[in-house]
Known about the structure:
The protein is mostly beta strands. It has a single domain (6-84), classed as 2,3-Dihydroxybiphenyl 1,2-Dioxygenase, domain 1. The chain has one helix and six strands; from the N terminus they run E-E-E-H-E-E-E. It has one helix at residues 41-50; strands at residues 6-10, 18-22, 34-37, 54-61, 66-72, 78-84. The longest helix is centred in the middle third of the chain and has 10 residues, at 41-50. The two termini are 16 Å apart.
Amino acid sequence: MDQGWIVTLASGEAAKVQLSIASEGGSGTQVPDMSIEVDDVDAVYARAKSLGVEIVYDLTDEPWGVRRFYARDPAGKVLNILAHAE
Length: 86
């Protein structure tokens, strides 16, 4: 995938590994410190909210085919939690 502001390289293996190099976070967001793909982003978002985790960027369907949100971890790092559209 190459969106101009982010390039992602992925393995075709069963345990997919991806490496992204970004100059921005997309949709006007900052570049996150780490991205984590999950099976059910809605459930993770609900759990994060219930635990009082700081949401930096609200749950959003992005035009490039992911549903994601940003959360700040206890060390202050911004995590991009996402799932790819099916």
